[in-house]
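Case study: Large ribosomal subunit protein bL12.
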Amino acid sequence: MSNEQILEAIKGMSVLELNDLVKAIEEEFGVTAAAPVAAAGAAAVEAEEQSEFDVVLMSAGASKINVIKAVREITGLGLKEAKDLVDNAPKALKEKVSKEEAETVKAKLEEAGANVEVK
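Here is what the predicted structure looks like once written out:
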């Protein structure tokens, strides 16, 4: 069996199966795998793709009026509420939205002149 085949087999295992494998290796070879298990757990967390994003208005930039109009369009807020939101940047405009929606909102705001982050 090649290293690549072993890695592919490990990738297909559940966390419980990996735990049992580590215990079996420890018993068979008389070693402790505390550090590799922690690293494998961290890698598994990083491998999970983020599915919810927050769109944060960092600043209005040079054309504040256009940004306020864009914020009103995106959020459905009234003029005063949208202005207050823009004046108090950085503020979250949309929270827990899909990647596509976050990118669309970001594009609209940047087109209006705002500085935006997707987190």
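For the exam, be able to explain this: The first helix runs from residue 3 to 11.
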